[in-house]
Amino acid sequence: MSHGTASAKVVDERVYEVHELTRVEGEGSLRLRVKDGEVVEARLGIFETPRYFEQLVVGRTPDEVIDIVARICGICPVAYQMSAVHGFEDLFGVRIDPQSRALRRLLYCGEWIESHSLHIYFLHAPDFLGYESGIAMAADHRPLVEQALKMKKAGNHLIKILGGRPIHPVSVRVGGWSRAPRVSELKEHRAALEEGLAFALETVKVVAGFTMPAFAREPRVVSLRHAAEYPFNDGRIVSSDGVDLPPTGWRDAFEEFQVEGTNALHARSVDGKGVYLLGPAARVVLAGEQLHPLAKEALAASGYAELIRTNIYASIVARAVELVHAFAEAIDIIDAYRVPSEPLVAWQSRPGVAAWATEAPRGLLFHRYEVDESGRIRAAQIVPPTSQNQAAIEADLVVAAKQVLDLPHAEATLRLEQMIRSYDPCISCATHFLDLRVEEA
Amino acid sequence: MTSRVPIFVCGEPARGDDAAGFAAVDLLPADVRERVEVVPVGQLDILFLMDLPADAPCVVVDAVAGLRPGEVWVRPLAALVDRARALQAAGRAPEPRSSHELPLEQVLALAATLRDAPPAGTFVGIGGACFDVGTPLTAPVAGALPAFAAAIAAEVAAFTANDALPC
């Protein structure tokens, strides 16, 4: 509703208020205010109680840290373990067996598979297919849901083989592994991965067939990039505008800062270059040349190679392409696997700073630990991708808001929800993301 | 040879009465234990149900909020599916307890959709009073554990009445 003023000037102000965001890394809210067609406020508030993991690890040993930080997330525990273990090994000068390194990539494949298949089919596809949830979608698209469950199971089982259990694995250690799998254990899982690869290739075709809402911007993207492999747990931190740092160097280009009204820290460039986007779309843009040939081929056939960069809704295609990559690389690793001659390399603690970035399913995850003379943690900093993406989400809401103002309320609501889901904010199986209320002044 | 009846034990052993399911299966007599496979699941995942052969019964065990503490509650899984679907039809989906999990009824309903029929089996619950981290079982729940275990055992006995012992 519009109202007039004494001077007869008409002011059109709309407030989109979201009280409970789920499926983010915590619980949050959104407030979007549009005045005369211009967004004057776009705010993502995270109100979940802080979880204090950076303090929980203080006084702990590196191996304890690896198991503790895994508990930050039930979907991407491997990412937290990988950033921590690589940081410690870099500080302590540990060189692990090449097969141990390959197994860590395999573990990451398992995590990407279970995370991406969950998000594509249960959290995001219902938006495109017109369902309120994956459960509702299952009645009409049973084969899709079944194949999603099979893929997720294949990923979780891979984590179980390597890490002892499908969620929160426990075998990653500084120096390698507490237990390396037998060749036969991995070979037995190969058929499920082959089946999953076929499903993943089909998934790219399915999501490329979705109608993408119009959306265009030129984001600044950041990810790891490696000369010889698609980035999981190694490579340099690069951006679309020239950042090029070792995986230890995140703080040379970025910083966290507190924003009023949210319990999650935001992140920004120290040089004032503004917000940046992490995640599958960023990785495909910056490191696409290292995708597995099957994934590269699927991306080209999808026709989305360019749109992935400019249209956030198309991130579902990037995620599907990475699903292909993860299955294909997992099979390759298993085919080449032999048990490491030294699964757990001896190491000696030394004081200093352990820092590393790896690629969680949702994007770059940076850890930094100060280790004291007794080998215990003195201070910790953990910078998850979802918190780094908060500012980009807010920026994209500004873009999306302008495109939904003329839509009916329900459609506008769905479109904004869909946009935020494109970021795959960490975790959750809930159906509704946003409880959007439109107030027209 | 017959296969064992899976008992999916939901809950969290460190959270007060949420440990009731784990405590109850520990009380199962030996002749029952040899007919079951105890699967601690924390929360029931759809994948557990998808792996079950058609018509193979299972028992799902959990503590329940909203019942009188210590009250034992037994329902066919199909009844929980009906309840979830009725709520869904009324526009009132079961409330998740957190944003990180799907309510048990919705998991069962999804399994029913994907399997063309509700999973065979029974839910055996017990009313809980306190689910705080680090707390023990409350007195009413601790006192009702034998009845809780007996209810679980009765379901297993019903499912295996005509079976020979598993090899």
Second CATH tier, the architecture of chain B? 3-Layer(aba) Sandwich
Q: Let me know the number of strands of chain B.
A: 5
What percentage of residues of chain A falls in helices of 4 or more residues?
A: 40-55%
- Report the average pLDDT across residues of chain B: 89
> Sheet bearing the most strands of chain B, described?
5 strands, mixed
Fraction of residues in β-strands of chain A? 15-25%
What would you report as the Rg of chain A, rounded to the nearest angstrom?
Answer: 22 Å
Fraction of residues of chain B in helices? 25-40%
What is the succession of H and E elements of chain B?
A: EHHEHEEHHEH
Most residues in contact: chain pair? A-B, 21 and 15 residues
Looking at CATH, which topology of the largest domain in chain A would you report? Cytochrome-c3 Hydrogenase, chain B
The first-level CATH class of chain B is given as Alpha Beta
Sheet with most strands of chain A:
4 strands, antiparallel
- Number of spatially distinct domains of chain B: 1
Low-pLDDT runs of chain A: 1-6, 427-441
